[in-house]
């Protein structure tokens, strides 16, 4: 079987595609807020940006990444599960930025503006997103969009 025919590989590539698009959404909203109305609140701007991207991610994940695991009767459970996992992901995503800014003190005037912005970008969109992505991939597969056919097979075998 070719890699592109493997459902796990296809799902992972779709997950990465959706994540890449949502990464762009996050950056656009984050910097739009951070350089306009939320200059003094970069962590809050990043939390808002991640929340907006999460809504976009839900729609794309349900319709594109996990389309083969959509059960109409499980839709409410999937919505609740997706947003619970995503809320945890947002906290994981934002934690490195918070630590960089407020624990390590990597903000202006303690450091130069350029260093602050580099630290913000590395800690939030890079490190935070990587940590949250790994968590979301695991949690979405495990709890939100599980492989129902395998679970049903186990139940049938046990009965």
Characterise this structure.
The structure is a single chain. The protein is an all-alpha fold and 159 residues long. It has one domain (3-158). 78% of the residues lie in helices and 0% in strands. It contains five helices and no strands. It has helices spanning 7-34, 42-65, 75-103, 113-144, 148-158. The two termini are 32 Å apart. The mean pLDDT is 88.
What Rg is obtained from the alpha carbons, in whole angstroms? 18 Å
Distance between the termini: 32 Å
SS class? mainly alpha
The structural domain count equals 1
Give a short overview.
The chain is mainly alpha-helical and 159 residues long. The chain contains five helices and no strands.
Reconstruct the topology from this structure.
Blueprint: H1 7-34, H2 42-65, H3 75-103, H4 113-144, H5 148-158
Helix pairs in contact: 1-2, 1-4, 2-3, 3-4
Distinctive features:
mainly alpha, 78% helix, 159 residues, elongated, single chain, 5 helices
């Amino acid at each position: 079987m070719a890699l592109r025919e493997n459902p796990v590989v296809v799902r992972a590539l779709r997950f990465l595609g959706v994540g890449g698009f949502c990464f762009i959404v996050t950056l656009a909203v984050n910097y739009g807020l951070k350089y306009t109305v939320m200059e003094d609140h970069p962590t809050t701007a990043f939390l808002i940006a991640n929340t907006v991207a999460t809504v976009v991610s839900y729609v794309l994940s349900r319709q594109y990444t996990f389309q083969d695991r959509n059960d109409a009767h499980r839709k409410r459970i999937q919505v609740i599960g997706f947003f619970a996992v995503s809320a945890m992901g947002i906290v994981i995503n934002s934690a490195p930025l918070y630590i960089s800014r407020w624990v390590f003190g990597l903000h202006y005037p303690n450091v130069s503006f350029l260093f602050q912005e580099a630290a913000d970008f590395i800690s939030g969109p890079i490190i935070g997103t990587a940590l949250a992505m790994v968590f979301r991939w695991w949690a979405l597969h495990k709890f939100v969009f599980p492989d129902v056919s395998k679970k049903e097979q186990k139940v049938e075998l046990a009965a």
